[in-house]
Amino acid sequence: MDFAFLKSTFLLLLTGVPLTAQLTLVSIVCGAGIATGIALLRLSRVAVLNAMARGYVFLIRGTPLLIQIFLIYYGLGQFRPTLQAWGLWGIFREPYWCAIFALTLNTAAYGSEIIRGGLQSVPHQAIEAGRAVGMSTFLLARRIIFPIALRQALPAYGNEITLMLKATSLASSITMMEVTGLAAKLMADTFRSVEIFFVAGAIYLALNSLSAAMFAIVEWWVSPHMRGPKQAKSQTLPTHA
């Protein structure tokens, strides 16, 4: 095994990590906000809003992310005059923003189902108890509903972040030079696919391990009832003669 080549490959692919992390972070943050709104629409009693949210989730979850990226990056070019008139062509002509847009829409659909499940898992007795002590709707949501829903949804949302981090590799299909894009370019130059993609896989594994560790810390922090009891320090009592 050529360790010198592995080292040079690792250093080269490492330069794509900031873009991979940026694609993941921006899409997850923006997608979480959209996902919360969609989840609330899914729980709405207004039939039209509920149907619109259901249709969005069905459409995004039922089609591959790669096709969504292609439709946004290549498809929107057919509407260039309209986008120029609206002042949006400067955004959608850039592969970076097209990738962000596609990843955000995708994770919003999956995230909305996770958040909806978390909200529906809040015990009805807890809500009734809050109302019984005179909590307003806002205070009830802030002190009871959202904290419980967050704890319930956090493990599944951690999996969604892992999936999105790996999904950023599809951005290489629209000329984005993140980890996979750099790996594909290097393979085209050297034809050494095994070593290159072994290193790329190791980088993704390290990033996902770091993400999982961070989420484990957050989950521990927001779940004080799951922590073990603190062991009291033993005290040495003085002996009496």
Counted up, domains total: 1
Q: What is the radius of gyration computed over CA atoms, rounded to a whole number of angstroms?
A: 24 Å
Number of strands: 0
Described by the principal axes of the CA atoms, the overall outline is flat
- The fourth-level CATH homologous superfamily is MetI-like
Major sheet description:
none
* Tally of helical runs: 11
The helix/strand series, from N terminus to C terminus, equals HHHHHHHHHHH
- Name the beta content range: under 5%
Poorly predicted regions are 231-241
Calculate the terminal CA-CA distance, rounded to whole Å.
73 Å
Q: What's the architecture in CATH terms?
A: Orthogonal Bundle
Notes on the structure:
With about 240 residues, the chain is mostly helical. The protein has helices at about 5-15, 15-40, 45-60, 65-75, 80-85, 90, 95-120, 125-130, 135-165, 180-190, 195-220. The chain is built from eleven helices and no strands. Helix 8 runs antiparallel to helix 9. The longest helix is centred in the middle third of the chain and has 31 residues, at about 135-165.
